[in-house]
What does this fold into?
Amino acid sequence: MNNLDLHDIRQDYSKQSLNEADCCANPLEQFQKWLTAAMHAKVNEPTAMNIATIDQHGRPNARIVLLKEVTAHGFVFFTNYHSRKGRALSQHPYAALTFFWPELERQVRVEGVVQPLPAADSDAYFHSRPYSSRIGAWASEQSTVISSKTELMTRAAKLSAKYLLNVPRPPHWGGYIVQPELIEFWQGRPSRLHDRIQYELQNNLWIKQRLSP
It folds into this structure.
């Protein structure tokens, strides 16, 4: 295996700065501002987020999913409840999210408690999805081993024949909301003297502080 020299790969960040006075009192409002800026800047996959969970052995596991909504209570995503992350969340209902928008030299970290969404909310989102995505939610036994891609495609074809028009939401599929207890906004700065503003929930109040880079 050839050794890649990664030591000299670096970029000096200098596009913007972040000051406490410029940040909203509520971090969810601040996140909305940054997400809007990322979308206007045409950042690639602005709603993509890394979500890390803890399994039954206390080991972390991470993957990329798409944020589907930001509410006054937290960050919403949807998945198969029987997936690896779904099983982890049933045992340890906590998660860490990371958003990275390199075009803006920005990163957001979130830590919080995870709760399943009410069935009515999961139903509403499921029925807004394209037909093929709804069939896919039934066809995929997410995170399980399959013999081949043909097995998956055959299962999807059978389900398409069964559900010609109306595809009900599978009982094993739905939404979660990550209710934040800590949110950190990171803005890249020159000489690695980055701006880091952290919000921590204490006694139902958000405490805003600057962190050393």
